[in-house]
Amino acid sequence: MAAGAAPYRKLDPALRAERAAIVFDLRLQGLSYRQIDILTQAPDGPTGGHRISATTAKELLYEEAARRVDPKVDAWRALQLDRLDGVLRDHLALRNANWDRAMDGEERPALAVDRALNGVTKTVEAQNKLLGLATTKIEAQVVEVTQQDVELQEMIRTAKAKAALEEAAIIDGEAGE
Q1: How confident is the model at residue 112 (pLDDT cuts 50, 70, 90)?
Q2: pLDDT digits (tens, 9 = 90+) for 5-60
Q3: Does residue 116 contact residue 98 with C-beta atoms inside 8 Å?
Q4: Are 52 and 77 a contacting pair, CB within 8 Å?
Q5: Closest to 83 in 3D by CA, of 127, 20, 122, 21
Q6: Helix (H) or strand (E) holding 109
Q7: Degrees to nearest 5, angle at CA 122 with 110 and 120
Q8: Where along the chain do its domains lie?
Q9: Between 13-28 and 71-103, two packed helices, what is the crossing angle to 10 degrees?
């Protein structure tokens, strides 16, 4: 075999399931994905020094949650839903604060609404994924209209109305001759 990078090899399914169970238990104990990454690198850690990256830990956790049919899954889901509820409350408070600032003229309303909707959307998607619910993508476009835009639109309407009157006067004048 030629020198170079080793070909990608899939982890033995039994070993992957074992590591998924370890990650699941560590998350249930309250460790973050980053903490799991660090803990699994330690030679005396739960995996004997075989690192489980934060990204892999997340994948393993969802696989294990889908695979398990025991009370731990419900406890984990309840823990995650409580956390996501807190995040959702934070996003809604942020949305209200941004909206208030926007209405006071401190910030552009479109930016405030966009920030809030983005956070709320991501949180709801995470909750739906956790519960195995299908998500519906909703796209919204927020257009900011300034006072100058309103004044410009009024000027255009006035100019069009004036042009229409002048055109009608010209047409009527030609018809009368």
Answers
A1: low
A2: 555 556 778 888 899 999 999 998 989 999 999 999 999 999 998 999 999 999 89
A3: yes
A4: no
A5: 127
A6: helix 109-131
A7: 50
A8: 12-68, 69-143, 145-177
A9: 60
